[in-house]
Every structure is written in C-alpha cells, then in structure tokens.
Amino acid sequence: MSLSTPEVAARNAAARPADPERVIVVPRLERPGEEPRYLLVQWRDWPPPALLSLDVPSDAAALEPAVVDTLWHRIAVRVVGPVALTPDRQPVRMSKKARGGEGLGWLRAALVRVEGDPQPDPLLEAVLALTLDEALEVLTSDVERALLRRAAALG
Q: What letter does residue 19 receive in the DSSP assignment?
C-alpha cells in the first residue's frame, strides 16, 4: 500500500488543523466627482500605513457582520453593499495561535464600499484616504500591495 494514496492524503488533511486565515479589509470610499479612495490606517505603535485585517470567523455567515463591525468601530465608516472577497488567497508566514510557532497561513482581500467621514479609534493614530496609486506607493509590504490590487480589481 502506498503512503501517498488519495485516501491517506485526504485523511491526513482532515486530521490536521486548518491553516490560519485572515481577511485583509479594503475599504473603498466613493464620493461623486472624485476618484475612489482606499482607507489605510496608521497604528500608534506601527506608523507605516496599513490595511485592516481580521480573523476569518468559523461560520462563513459571520464574516460580513464582522467586517461591518470592524469598520464601524475602528474607523467610523458605514458599509454600503456586500463584502466582495477575492477568489484567491495569498500564502504567507503566520503565527499558529493554537500550537504556537509560525507556519503557512492565508490572506484573502475583501473589498468593501463605505461611506462617512473616517475617524480613527483611540488605538489608531490616523486614517488615510488615498487614491489607488497613492495607497500602492505608501504601503510597505509587497503582500499588502498585491492584495490591494486584487481587491481594487473587484470594483
């Protein structure tokens, strides 16, 4: 019997915990007569602009409410319309909370149309409303730039 049969591979995949996954939230602010703006945040202890992220809820139906709550509480904007997820995920090194250490994790971008006047919560230093080109220029991570491009292509 071969150790690489499809049945063994499926059993092994089912037995190990799923790799961690996070959603990178890409809020898009659209105002009449203006180019769309993407909202990036600056943390007090991490000044480079970044995109918000959140753990993927175990119940898929809870993702949209989690995104809505995160955007309202973090940057005081309201979501208008559905959350649009990119069809692909980006592999990254990520901490394994359940077992400790680091290993394979996944990031998926979610484009979210928002309205309102962005205001940072007390843990944030600022919220930046930037055009796509401006946002791509200030993000310090190639992974975040790639995810922003994928999300922007959805809308």
A: P
